[in-house]
What we know:
Layout: H1 3-19, H2 21-24, H3 31-42, H4 54-78, H5 87-113, H6 119-129, H7 150-161, H8 163-179, H9 184-224, H10 229-249, H11 254-272, H12 280-285, H13 308-345, H14 350-369, H15 377-385, H16 391-401, H17 407-442
Helix pairs in contact: 3-13, 3-17, 4-7, 4-11, 4-13, 4-16, 5-6, 5-7, 5-8, 5-14, 6-8, 6-17, 8-9, 9-10, 9-11, 9-13, 10-11, 10-13, 13-17, 14-15, 14-17, 16-17
Amino acid sequence: MTFSQWLLVLGTLLLVLALASAYLRLLPVSSSVLYLLFGLGVGPIGLGLWQQDIGDISHWLEHLAESAVLISLFIGGLKLRLPLRAPEWRTAYLLAAPVLVGTIFGLTLIGHSLLDMSWGLALLVAAILSPTDPVLASLVQVSGAGDVDRLRYSISGEAGLNDGVAFPFVIAGIMLLQFESPNANEWLFWFAKDVLWAVPAALLLGYLLGRGTGRLVIYLRARHNDTVVSANDFLALALIAISYACAETIGAWGFLATFCAGVGLRHAEVDTSGHDAVPAEEAASGTLREEGQAAPVVEFGSNPGEHPQIAAGAVMADILSFGGLLERLLEVFMVTLLGALLVQHWDWRALPLGLALFCLVRPAMVVLLVRERLLPLRQRLFVGWFGIRGIGSLYYLSYAVNHDLPPLSGREATDLVLSVVALSILLHGLTTQPLLGLYERRQ
């Protein structure tokens, strides 16, 4: 497809979504299912506008998926306002670490024993597919900074943190495929560099950068009565870029640093608001943000610098609105692209692998490793099912393909990952809204 054809395809899709938004909201499916079907329509079994293989686009696909995940992680972190020692965070820590590690090992065993994959390939595919996606899981994450529902909060925290645990296992899978049997020194170096250093360094760097920058910006906005929206948009892009680049420079995980930068920026607002229970953007506008509505418009009055909380509210509202728009646009493009690629890469083995992941391995790990006092059994079952796979897995896959995988292993990993991600979009897209409705009625 030429650039003009891509513009025509995406423009058509966006126009349909805009004109039919009232009707689409009535459908019991998530919008990502519609994007996937649209991608199938422009692929080989439809209009035939897309004929390329993932090997032809893996380099720019890696950076595009990387951008989508970074924006989603930062905006996701910006919505998490509770203290880091709150029970909701403790559940997220369990989901992002022991539950994820158990899921990776369980899926690796299934891939090796049932699908006859090598240990390296099985580990790589499991590490790519196990993390909950921060982009496509938006329906089951918190709807705003004032949302403290424990189930939603736990999934939001998990989606932001699990990259720091999954990425080392992606690297380990690549090592096994490239070297077959790495020696003890190579494994020790991997553990020291990719786990002991990269994870805590990213957490600390991102949080301190976001919180420090946030306090400075809020102070300057309040002092100079600065309410220019574009300046706040620049702040979001700057923090995403700087946190990611600095983390990569020191050998830390950039995704994790960017998520923590969003959390740090939000906690700068909490400091400014005097730990008020109401987020600054809601208090400043006098309007609680409801799910599905646009970000609130902050009413500053004649002197917007009268109180730092008003300046903080302006910053938060502008960034959430701008970031949410970018996140939705990139989601449309990435899922449509997945649909266009799917026919060339469909692998029927994704059915047993995906169903084992969605229905057995992840739910079992959540039930076994998350304590009853943090989440009751019913909520743990919901969390076990809501482990949605998506754009993050596409990034990990592109990263692995671009790092000299053996050709046969690269093709097999590509087919399985794209097929399981598409299966996740379909199954979770069909079930998320009905299950959320059931959950909210019971709550």
